Amino acid sequence: MERILGKLIGKQPGPLIICLAAVHGNEPLGLHAFQNVYSALVKNKIPFKGKLIGIAGNIKAVQSGRRYLDYDLNRCWTEDFVQNVIGGRENGQAEDEELRSIHRIISEEANGHHNLKVMVDLHGTSAEKGNFIVVPEELNEHPIITSLRIPIVVDLHKYLNGTLLSYYSDRGYVAFAFEGGLIGTSEAYRLHTSGLWEILETAGCVTGHDHHQQDHYSSHLAEMSANLPAKVKVLYRHLVKPEDGFRMYPGFHNFQPVHKNQELAIDAQGVIKSPHDGLIFMPLYQSEGDDGFFIVEEV
What we know:
By secondary structure, the chain is of the alpha/beta class. The protein has helices spanning 29-43, 59-64, 79-86, 94-109, 143-146, 164-169, 186-203, 211-224; strands at 4-9, 12-21, 49-56, 117-125, 131-134, 152-153, 174-182, 231-239, 247-248, 256-258, 263-267, 270-273, 278-281, 291-298.
């Protein structure tokens, strides 16, 4: 698998759009969604402003069908850790070369003047109805974000140390995680595809590329947000460790209402109950991951 999924440089200046996919190796549909959009741009010779580049994330983990091999590639983007890896001062773990390669490409492609820099990190979730945007609170009203019409989580990055979106938002990017829904579903692929077209349109990279299709993509995004909250903030995070033996009770989906003291999961210590009334968020239904679930509330 090539690291660079595709690169397009328009004849006119404009935004820099960087799209990362499969930063978690068990979430590969973003790779195909980007290639779908990129191929359509090239094949149909759609006029383009600025620069678009797609980057494959954790290639080794994709090839192994795992979230990660040695460490989570979306929990390691702190200044000290990144500098240690770039300087070769880490212990030769599998993700070190992945991080070095991603960092190098982004640094090289960001050279030059761009009126806007956007970083889109495509993900999936292990529970149903997992279509939402994770973005720093100061960016939650940005036109790129609001154009996607799906729920916005304004403070999740504060609970997750070392996210790629935090690292690059600190460097002037409109950086966000774009969760497409349940891992491995055609719905997640469609949502990412629709969202990427909407991002390019809103950023001014393409205009009128195909009005019929654009209407279709916009309608699909609006349809996916029906009956979901527009914006939420985190009330509680349930952290888990491998030795906990954590198991989420079946049947929960993102943004499902739960009440205080409702039984949600079980681990070696016994039954785990919700500490708040609210909406359950990102319940863990996969073997790897540190977050058992979150409780959020609508803003």
